[in-house]
Amino acid sequence: MGCVQSFRECCDRPKNPNLRMSLPPVCFVWQISMIILFGVFIRYDEEADAHWIEHRHHENISSDIENDFYFRYPSFQDVHVMIFVGFGFLMTFLKRYSFGAVGFNFLIAAFGLQWALLMQGWFQSLDYTDGKIKIGVENLINADFCVAGCLIAYGAVLGKVSPVQLMVLTLFGVTLFAVEEFIIIKLIHARDAGGSMVIHTFGGYYGLSISWMLYRPNLDQSSRLQGSVYQSDVFAMIGTLFLWMFWPSFNSAITDHGDGQHRAAINTYLALASTVLTTVAISSLFQKHGKLDMVHIQNSTLAGGVAVGTAAEFMLMPYGSLIVGFCCGIISTLGYIYVTPFMDKYLKIQDTCGIHNLHAMPGVIGGIVGAITAAGATEAVYGREGLVNTFDFEGAWKDVVPTQQGGYQAAALCVAICFGIGGGIFVGCILRMPIWGDAADDNCFDDEPYWELPDDEETIPPPILEYNNHMVNMNMNKDIAESNFTVEPN
Does the predicted model carry a pTM greater than 0.85? Predict the structure, then answer.
């Protein structure tokens, strides 16, 4: 462990408050940079451009309803809600870090999606005839997916880093995501509709590696703020429910129209339902007195949606989806009970939100399920045309057989893990520099260093209206009962 500690400390320097970067100039400079880069590179694609009418006539498209906007926008809305509401509120469980959870989620998502449109555009949407990136509604969905990987990583360092550090984390995270996505989807030719590998595995290990690099041995000085209160857990549960409801859209948003998209929504729907029952059972079984732990209900109930992502458009079969959800409910819940404390104590990984149990492990499971399902695909199950359409066995890949595709899926999982861990260590080294203005060990998990907070006011209970209050009847019944047992003096 001495080598590990030395490696962490090699980038560390004594903190000098005068060298810390402030948020306003960083936001202004980066937004102006985005404006310039968008002006140079970004244009509408043919379905969003005013020349759509001419394109319709040229391609013999009969109606505007065939514009991809009408197919993709409902899914885009759902994914967008997941990014800004689902992820944001899921992280509000800390008693004094709700502003930071929702507000910084808002900040890095808004910045990240702009940078993602550029990075993904350069790798996948660049028109070499004019050097422009052509964007439409599908690009917006993919940008949200890219941002999701960074928001997952944010969960591991929640409450321990400054907003400027989060901007740096997002800048490099989006860049790494675009590269690994290009390698996995375009070069390796893996299928990953719901992003179990590209989004969740990468984002999970990216965040965990950064957290490992930013390990704080004296973080117990903020232990008083690391827990939740009743109200904060209720707000976090709002995020869980939004994510849970819209996850079928997340996994099916960019799949092929028709049976693939339909199948992805069904498989995700069933896996999520199975995960809820399993999580409740395991949480109650391993808690004292059979009670439920809200941490498990907020997080592990979503693990099935993560794990079914890669195989969502495959012929996984409805019972297969239930099996995936069942296994993830067990593994994720036990991860919160046993793995997270082990990682904190022995591996020096302080995972605030438990992203290892919600994203990293289920993402790996999803990659394995995808590889096995792809390798076992047959014409009897898919049909010849269905096999070609599902796995895109066309062009340079027309001679690929399912067993080879299974190997490609396994290779893609390895790429996602390597990019996550390697990229996280690299970015962690940068974030250890003393210029970012992160909070002291005894001031973590608190909104006060970065937000203007309202004054705490004494809560004055409102007057009770007797005509509509069950307590009135309860008190009356109590008075009657007491009078019946009153003994009159002789």
Answer: yes
The amino acid occupying position 448 is E
Strands 42-44 and 132-135: what pairing? Answer: parallel
**CA distance readout (Å), 117 to 50, 145, 177:** 21, 11, 12
User: Helix/strand/coil (H, E, C) string of the chain?
Assistant: CHHHHHHHHCCCCCCCHHHCCCHHHHHHHHHHHHHHHHHHHEEECCCCCCCHHHHHHHCCCCCHHHCHHHHHHHHHHHHHHHHHHHHHHHCCCCCCCHHHHHHHHHHHHHHHHHHHHHHHHHHHHEECCCCEEEECHHHHHHHHHHHHHHHHHHHHCCCCCCHHHHHHHHHHHHHHHHHHHHHHHHHCCCCCCCCHHHHHHHHHHHHHHHHHHCCCCCHHHHHHHCCCCHHHHHHHHHHHHHHHHHHHHHHHCCCCCCHHHHHHHHHHHHHHHHHHHHHHHHHHHHCHHHCCCHHHHHHHHHHHHHHCCCCCCCCCCHHHHHHHHHHHHHHHHHHHHHHHHHHHHHHCCCCCCCHHHHHHHHHHHHHHHHHHHHHCCCHHHHCHHHHHHHHCCCHHHCCCCHHHHHHHHHHHHHHHHHHHHHHHHHHHHHHCCCCCCCCCHHHCCCCCCCCCCCCCCCCCCCCCCHHHCHHHHHHHHHHHHHHHCCCCCC
**Tokens describing residue 464:** 């009770």
Q: CA separation (Å) from 12 to 215, 354, 429, 433, 444?
A: 12, 26, 8, 6, 19
How do the pLDDT tens digits run along the chain, 490 residues long? Answer: 555 555 555 555 444 443 456 888 999 999 999 999 999 999 999 999 999 998 898 888 888 899 999 999 999 999 999 999 999 999 999 999 999 999 999 999 999 999 999 999 999 989 999 999 999 999 999 999 999 999 999 999 999 999 999 999 999 999 999 999 999 999 999 999 999 999 999 999 999 999 999 999 999 998 889 889 999 999 999 999 999 999 999 999 999 899 999 999 999 999 999 999 999 999 999 988 899 999 999 999 999 999 999 999 999 999 999 999 999 999 999 999 999 999 999 999 999 999 999 999 999 999 999 999 999 999 999 999 999 999 999 999 999 999 999 999 999 999 999 999 999 999 999 999 888 888 889 889 999 999 999 876 444 455 544 444 444 444 544 454 455 545 444 4
Largest CA distance in the chain: 109
Question: What is the Cα–Cα distance from 459 to 461, expressed in whole angstroms?
Answer: 6
Beta strand pairing status for 132-135 and 126-127? antiparallel
| Edge-to-edge strand ranges of the sheet holding 132-135 | 42-44, 132-135, 126-127
